[in-house]
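Appendix B. One record, verbatim.
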Amino acid sequence: EEKYYIKKEKEYRDLKKTYNQIELIELPKPIFAGFKRYYTMTDRSNASKYKSAYLKLLEINNGIQYSRTKEFYYKIGKKKIKKEMYIALSYTEYKEIPIEIKHLFESRRDEEYPKFRYRNYYFTRIDIFKVELKKHYITHTILKDGKLESELRKLENELYENRDNYAKLSKAVSRFVNYKPWKHEGKIPSLEKENIKEFFETLIDYS
């Protein structure tokens, strides 16, 4: 079983490498695709003794979010829920954070999928930054390869979106994961389904 998952991941990486080499096409003119917001430095964080560490944090994850409107919400059924802004790091990202600000993070269960026992590292001094809002434009697209995309998606579902399988894969390649396999009979709804999801998946942002 371990050899199977190792083989499948190698297959996925080879396909991903091929996909990333697909030619980019510049659009005749940028397409307005909504808005984006993210954290940036303030006078306070620039004057801090931790300035370089804060800059490194924003380089790794600046909490960027995209929305079709300035409202920044997601839907559950017909109910609109406002998106909260935060910086949450995976374990891999957290390892890259400078030691001097690691005490400013809090380890918590993933809020969207708490039963998976997957933990994120939340930055607790978010007030040290400010939120910048900008229009979001798409400037490039890619030549679509339906067969390649279908194969990639199939492998992603099997290896990475199935948490039980990902735990088995991680064990096979001695990769650290901070959650355990969890069996669930029902379906877990996605909280981030937006009308333009498909649009963003086929276009690349270089703005």
